Records
---
Amino acid sequence: MSAKLKYFLFGLMVLAQIGVPAYLVASRESILRGGERLLFRAKPMDPYDAFRGRYLALGFEEDEVSARPEDQWDAGQMAFVILEKDAAGFAKSAGLSRKRPAAGSYLKVLTRSGIYNGKVQIEYPFSQYFLSEKKAPKADLLYRRHSVREKREAHVAVRVKNGLAALENLFIAGKPIAEYF
Amino acid sequence: MRYKKIIKWLGSEIPLWVQEGIVSPEAAARIRERYEKKLAAKRPLTVLLFGCLGVLLIGFGLILIFARNWDDLPKWFRVSLAFLPLLSAQALSFWAMRRKSSSVTWREGTGGALSLSIGGCIALIGQIYHMPVVWHDFYLSWSLLVLPVVYLLGSTLAAGIFLFTITMWAASSQLSGSTAMLFWPLFALIIPHLRTKYAENKSSWELNALAWLTALTLTIAVGVCLEKNLPGFWMPVYAALFAVLYFIGVIWFPESQALWQQAYRTAGALGMIITLWIMSFSTVWDDIGYIYYRSGGKYDPLAGAFDYVILAGLLMAAVALFRYYLNRSKKNNLVMFFGYVPILALFGYSIGQFPAGMVAAIFLSNIYVFVLSLAIMLRGIEENRLSLLNAGLVVFSALLFSRFFDMHMGLVVRGLLFILIGSGFLAANFWLIKRKSKGTSRP
């Protein structure tokens, strides 16, 4: 291999290596800036499952979507969940589709179950909130206390654009989680 | 050290030779290159090994420190921090490629650092933007971005990281309910690198390290990639895989005194023995065979069918290589014995599925491990190689011990057998050392 060709290929490699993470940054930034803002009410997670080191595992109330039985959903399939926004800004799931919807807010998700009682369980692509080791235990406690059924005071703000989502912030009792530290 | 001094002296002499017209400037450059290359090759392996270990530790340390998640800092700053190790590793690699292309330490150091920083950067960006980790996507992009490092820098450490990432990809892909068939084309991407290293020097430490790494990767990956619809299918598959590795080692690699220096031969032989040894236990034959065929749910039919392709491919390769070996003029009995292992394993597995054949399959496996241990010992004696003699003894004792615990013998009988085996070890070694010292040993 000649030196020139080697340098050229090295340049291509550098571009690819920077390009992949840079693309991740750019796509998230574009969603965060231009996406529609939706709120998702958090639901309590299994306490043994919730705290895994450096992130909070989040669960959402709208994770069961009504689906038509003739669609024959199975676990682990790609799907588009159609979202509607209520007056307070919270998202409501309005249906599940295999095809990308032409308009409105929707998200690309994975199904976690087949149809059960006319509903399919889905996994939202923002189920992890990363924090530092020090803050994670306290954040976990806050999340658990405020997401119980009687309170329902935990929610996340998410930006949605072209079926992709970016998590903006986690709110506990109306305040961003960062303000508790 | 003395060698280094001579090179230094040579370095000061060569310009004088050119001045006096004894050698041409081109010849001078070639002489200098020759001896500098030799010096690089002479660098002790331990220094390099610890150098690589150092790079890996520093790399992991940096990843851990950044992973602490400095969420008090502004986001743009954290994003820049995530790119910092990657950019500096790229700059260092470029510099090493231009200036120090003959230095193994620089090549491995920068290649390893760059390979690690790629994975680190992607993981950190994911963390900063709270993106749930999709492991198989992560490992796939990491492995593909490491691949050019392997080829442009020629770094063995980068090749090791590539093999690690594709193995992890296969495992996470299989765990997520998807299949891992793409592993094979991914693995094929590293083969040209092995061929280059092979063409450079057949007995270099780098090639040997790569051989061990690929053997290990294949051993793990074959197990991961099998869809496992047919319980016990691993028996013929692994026997054939290890036979292929073994024959590649026997046919194309030089035989060496130390077993660890002949990666494919040792890994293949050891793997075949262990496969047969596991097959010699009666408990592994419970619930095996087509009666217990698994399907539906996480068992993918296409990947399940591909299991047979894997077996057929490996078996054909093993048989072809064995035949290639048989056509050679110089043969030895030990290799012949190993050559029949995959066929034996397939036969054992086929009959062992039936209650009537199970006992025969177990019996065959036991006998063959015993035969192999004897063949290894005999070969050790023939060639005056202690390493082989002891390897044979280890296999023999392992077989004996495992049968013992099967059979619930009395303490006295067990004790006596332990003493017998121990004495056997001592006597055999003593005898061989004595024979060696008489001067009959190989040069």
Note: The interface with chain B takes residues 6, 9-10, 12-14, 16-18, 20-21, 24-25, 28, 54, 75-76, 125-133, 135, 166-167, 178 of chain A (CB under 8 Å).
---
Amino acid sequence: MIVDLARFVAAEEPYWRKLEALLARRQRDPWAPTTLEEARELDYLYRRAGADLARVASFSGEPEMRRRLEQLVARAYAEIHGARRGDAVRLRVWYWLSATLPQTLRRRAGALVLATVVTLVGAVFGGVAVAVDPAAKEAVMPFSHLRGDPAERVAEEERAMTDRLAGHKAGFAGQLMTHNTKVSLFALALGMAWGVGTIILLFYNGVILGAVIVDYLQAGQGEFLAGWLLPHGVVEIPAILVGATAGLVLAQAVLGRDDGRPLAARLRAVADDVATLAAGTALMLVWAGVVESYLSQYHEPAIPYAMKIAFGLVEAALLAAYFGWVGRRATKEAL
Amino acid sequence: MNRERLDELRVRTPEGVSFGFRLASPVLRLAAWAVDKLTVLAAWTVVAALIRLIGILSVDLATGIIQVGYFVVALGYGIACEWRWEGQTLGKRLLHLRVMDERGLPLKFSQVVVRNLLRAVDTLPVAYLVGGLATLVGKKAQRLGDFAAATVVVHEPPLARVDLAGLELAKYNSLRGQRHLAARLRANVSPALAYAALQALWRREEFDETARVALFGELARHFRSLTPLPAEADEGISDEQFVRNVVEVVFGSPGAGVAAGR
């Protein structure tokens, strides 16, 4: 029991101030190296403030002092127990691009495969639906320009003598980027609903893709289709799959009761990967938006299809190489 | 599983120290969100006006930047502020709220990103209905974004300074000089009872005379039962004055001021 409160405060105040100053210094530059002396002092002052808090905790008066001590101890606790590896705190863009992002996707290959399979099943469903019943196009296609006759559209596009997007390319690119990013992040967020929403969105996306492909192939417009979709599609579709992978990772954490950890611990464990994959998705969709606006919408005779197809295939190869191989050396070094 | 709603998040450290954070109510969080929304809109009005100046060179480019800009500002505002200001946005600062890891540890960048990305679901179907319901039914008042990021929003209200002079403290307090007695009272009087006594003194003029005498008699009896009192500490003073004396030694700060929430 503290008999003389004023004396207690007078004796302890210098230690509290010292701890406050130490924490403020750490807060100003969290990445500054900590000396052994500094770490020892922090630990000592933290334990001392903790003991003081325990002594005043039962006091009905002195709420300000109790609150101050609680905050001080909480900050010191966070500083000591929240210590992390430097690379987890400071964002290193090049390292993130050359190691973190591709490594994360490889680590989550299972969820990526599931997202791909669901999309493919949707594509098969959409393709079969349009092949069996052409009237299904009306129900499946979300955009009016996809509901018409592909041959007519191709003829119209190839006849066009003027640049229909002139003066609107950047605006169109911006629209595509934001819309696709919103949809992908929505697919990610729906992972919290046990992944059901993510799966439905992926399936529906696959249905549209399959329906468009079969519709154009049936009309004999395969070359146009490849020239139109490949340049941006080889990045846009994987981007959506990466976003959905993050959603499925979340879903796995929500559902994975068998691993013995509480839900909060499971979710905390996947937060880094989810954030990384979300950022990767947004980055890929920025590129896809630019390509779709500035290249995909231009057809022969303006740009030869072979050139567009080759561009798309090179992008696909680079993307596969990036996610397949980049960062492997960093992993070995880390091991 | 205990689904009882918590008002306070208590953290017990491996060293055995225990401290608590008051969880923010959904109403406060809504108010902070409204402030943030208005801030983003106001900032965007200014930024968009500046971006439109690019239209002098290219209207198309200005349109493209505006298309992406609002999306980036609206999403990036929460992420940037909460990361830079340790769990606070402008609205949260104003309302004394803070986002923190539910273990009392600092936020990781990925936690900030995840809780902000999950707004996409929390805002469904309209006006944060999913998120609002989640905070109302959840044990720790977490919306889905908090749930996914393992974060909580806490309320850190500043303590209002209270002037005990309003209680008409007597020049002579029979307990003031008795340090051991004062220490025993500080240790034995529960916070709830101390505040009840303080409230009773503040509102003493509002009571009916009989109720006033009965209330202070009850409080004085209880205080007397907590610790043995020397005769001179209790002699010749009314129950109300005795309660006033107890309140003074319990709340009387070793420093200059006294703090309490009224």
Note: Chain A touches chain B through 72 residues (CB under 8 Å).
